[in-house]
Amino acid sequence: MGYEPQADFGTPASRASGTVTLTIDGYDVTVAAGTTVMRAAAEAGLAIPKLCATDSLKQFGSCRLCLVEIDGVRGTPASCTLPVAEGMAVRTRSDQVDRLRRNVMELYLTDHPADCTACAEGDCEVAAMAATVGLEAIRYAPGENHLCEDIDRSNPYFDFDPAKCIVCSRCVRACDEVQGTFALTIDGRGFASKVSAGLPSDDFLTSECVSCGACVQACPTGALQERTVKELGMPESATVTTCGYCGVGCTFRAEMKGEQLIRMVPWKDGKANRGHSCVKGRFAWGYANHKERILNPMVRASIDEPWREVSWEEALAHAASELKRIQATYGRLSIGGITSSRCTNEETFLVQKLVRAGFSNNNVDTCARVCHSPTGYGLKTTFGTSAGTQDFDSVDQADVVMVIGANPTDGHPVFASRLKQRLRQGAKLIVADPRRIDLVRAPHIEAAYHLPLRPGTNVAVLTAMAHVIVTEGLADEAFIRDRCDWNEYREWAEFVGDPRHSPEALAPVTLVEPDALRGAARLYATGGNAAIYYGLGVTEHSQGSSTVMAIANLAMATGNIGKPGVGVNPLRGQNNVQGSCDMGSFPHELSGYRHISDASLRRMFEDDWGVPLDPEPGLRINNMLDAAVDGVFKALYIQGEDILQSDPNTKHVAAGLAAMECVIVHDLFLNETANYAHIFLPGSTFLEKNGTFTNAERRIQPVRRVMTPLNGFEDWEVTQELANALGLGWSYTHPSQIMDEIARLTPTFAGVSFAKLDELGSVQWPCNDAMPEGTPVMHINGFVRGKGRFVVTDYIPTDEKTGPRFPLLLTTGRILSQYNVGAQTRRTANTVWHPEDLLEIHPHDAEERGLREGDWARLASRAGETTLRVTVTDRVAPGVVYTTFHHPATQANVVTTEYSDWATSCPEYKVTAVQVSPSNGPSDWQESYEALTEQSRRIAGVEAAE
After folding, report:
1. pLDDT digits (tens, 9 = 90+) for 765-774
2. CATH of domain 19-132
3. Where does the 4Fe-4S Mo/W bis-MGD-type domain lie (predicted)?
């Protein structure tokens, strides 16, 4: 499509149900009550000049460029702050209005640089508005701009030029209203007013600014402008696509100049992000053209040898030959595959199909195994479906929000901004987390309760909350009798009501003050619409599935399910974790979470695919690695996942990979897993492919190709070529055909097609004949399984225990600027904010160990050790330490153990007994690993050329 700016109606849409009819310039216009005159005119196709107004922000009325005349009203009110009224007669043009607008615009231009390059390029509204109001000459002599200061170039992605600023406050308002960070302000008064990023000593980099881009998006001039626009010029075309980072699933306009991406602009009609973005989606896309990206297939006989670049034909033929050889030698079950939560639904579907139809087994798994597999098990058991219950818009109607085991401002920042908006409107917040995350206390918000539980005691905390709800008569009996199994509820209520489950009795276990826990339970049960949002701090435990079911129990017991503003909502980590699970990536399930042992189900797939399917579930990722160490699992195809860095107990993962005879890595870069690979198939970025992603709210969204794949193929094409090298004879020509197959075989996707997504923008599954436009809120009239099921979830302490050798508990998480294992974000300017993983340690624990801010520390567990720098903070409690896992130089997972969730084998990343002590630098393991990495990434011919 050609390039046209997104339509801007000046002020937000009214949510009123009634309508008002007025006349504007003689035309009858009917709009929602409460609409501003400016928006009413815009909706009728009548543009009113503006500078301070934009429809992503509340009306402000400072620039005075949007003046209009109203019959019977004195003066010329600003149309952006004037609500419509029945029978109102508006004139947007008259001699007086035109003269006043020219005078206003003339004053702006006297203080705006005549050589503004943004004006010349069409990226500054000042010149456009001057032309709109008919200003041809300025009567005043030009003077030195009163804000002519040094340009702030501190941010790696955009510059701030005060000379071009008209002090319209749009950037400040965007930071407040959209992002909720309150990093910007207007300093001074009158003519001395100027935008300031925090303290006088601050710039955009050192301030509280989180580089979400809302200020850049809101700025009507060239004062805040992306570097790429300044360097490459304005875009010439735009295509709407979906972000390839976290599970929020933001929609963007990829604005292009030929094959060059100029900028990613959040799409106002994106139903997941509503026109907002974070630093990753908005700016951190440069990895697509990074010099370390591998664009040619490579092979090697041994991991000791350098890589050798080969043609696609040779690489695929070699891969197929090796897979056939290994199966002929070691048996049908000796090979498997891992699907990606970064790839599209269509690509993921093909990988699991390749394993089942081409490898003739069910040895397929996905990274959701190590993050949200307990969500699938727990919610399917209690509600009947393996996904969250609400859309993100639902939070706007929540009165109480409980966030447990999640850090939305870092992991899901666009949703966090929505949540903060709701909290500033008066909703109450409960945070259950070992750390004091930002949501506990931030500008203009504060949690009503922070429950700083001991890591690993989620089930005990939730059981204690349930005890309060049951024993104090706060359960919703009518809902339970109508919607749930009453006998199961009575059994559960008797269990949680036992005195041994009171907050006081469990306090020595949870370390949570009983009064705070009782207050939180009462607030959740009685505070109105109550919603629970949770993350990996819930699932990545030995009792992950139990915790998910305990959360579901709370929601059912209080009737907080099946309507807007409530629900149980997992915040998915990667962009397509939900989709990879939906597509049948688990070894025991086909698409739609249906068990492989179902003969009639298998028959349907067999008839469609033309091959027999194995009825026995295959190996999980951890089972594959165990079997490899045991010598019976010999080959693995891995699409888009870096299991060596992301999976627990790095040494065991390395041993499993090293024991295999053929490891095929299909990715963008030579990642850590590729250290042990024998065949490398270069992948394509989300910018280079067509398909769909499914976000955390079950929203299926289009991914549209905006540039030619640098490696020559989209990822689905690579998988198809490998399948055909194995003799499967696939003939897809476009991902839409793969989606048609998914819809044909998967009831929850039965109504999904590329044509429907083009028409509606996105849909949330289930999408079928019953719900042809999707299902924003689940379980409205009943649970998918019929009656909601209460499950007794007894607290069973983890086998990972602290003691004299390892007295501290390590828990891990993410940070805003980096993403997962960092393969993408580490290859962008985001490293300016987080160049290395740090170990957070409480001042008391640091003092005991003689550690100070910035010191090197040895982090050791029963599984291994690493070193990293410490940061001393009271965000963590005494006895608890915390770090991220974004940098391979640290390899935090070398210390995590193999303990895992009892039901799904999801690793227990969040509870590892460790010791922290002073260190002089990298551990022996880190040094040997660095040497291995350097050796394994040699490419024949490249070293000589360099």
Report:
1. 999 999 999 9
2. 3.10.20.740
3. 236-292
